[in-house]
Amino acid sequence: MIFGRSERGRPPVEPLTFKILVAGGFGVGKTTLVGAVSEIRPLRTEELLTEAGRPVDDLSGVEGKHTTTVAMDFGRITLREDLVLYLFGTPGQERFWFMWDELSEGALGAVVLADTRRLEDCFAAVDYFERRSIPFVVGVNCFEGAARYPAKAVRQALDLDEDVPVLLCDARERESVKETLIGVVQHAMAYTAAHRRTVTT
Fold first, then answer.
1. Which of 5, 10, 48, 88 sits in a 20 to 30 Å window from 153, CA-based?
2. Measured on CA atoms in the order 18, 19, 25, 28, is the torsion positive or negative?
3. pTM of the full predicted structure?
């Protein structure tokens, strides 16, 4: 690049940057999702689970989990030359929810990760984004050995509005996560456009 112009003579593209939250219950795969797709080494704030946390950290269904996020996960992915997403994974336990307000400031939208074995664990995240009118999609993390349910059944179980997308994903697979994030961006843009029309009419 020479004097602010590319070698092909085109001016450099200044990408749009958006903030996406990744939320959900304890042990649902938020850290895994951010790590699977981030093009930079993700920032993680994980600590080992301790005996002191056993009374408040329910390990049912995730008995093999040994660490927990205590602040946030952070990653970045470039979807196109002109579109970059910054990913912020929220802590799942209730005692860290005070951080959600700060993390959600300026967010375009969110992914609420759900585990069908512990579906009730994502109720709090769904409620949080609904109350604050932050557009979100529900990403059903397809864990090995977990029963698969159609999106309609998950929607009914979570009592979601019809316009909230329910997507099947694998938090370990980059392409699967990428498709989920594209779904968030598309839904957020449609949500924002619909909201603007409502305000102006």
1. 88
2. positive
3. 0.78
Look up residue 15 and give its amino acid. P
DSSP 60: T
Q: Supply 25's token pair.
A: 């219950």
pLDDT mean across residues, the chain? 83
Within 114-173, residue ranges assigned H as helices are 123-131, 151-158
Summarised one tens digit per residue, pLDDT across range 82-118 is: 999 999 998 866 666 677 888 899 999 999 999 999 9
What the block records as the tokens of 106 is 């300026």
**Which backbone phi and psi does 195 adopt, to 5 degrees?**
-65, -40
Q: Write b or e for each residue in 81-92: b if 16 or more Cβ atoms lie within 10 A of its Cβ, otherwise e.
A: eeeebbbbbbbb
Find out whether 171 and 33 touch, Cβ atoms under 8 Å. yes
Length reported for the chain: 201
d(CA 7, CA 93): 49
Torsion of CA 30, 31, 33, 39, to 10 degrees: 140
What span, in angstroms and rounded, lies between the C-alpha atoms of 141 and 168?
A: 6
Q: Taking a C-beta distance cutoff of 8 angstroms, is the pair 115, 138 a contact?
A: no
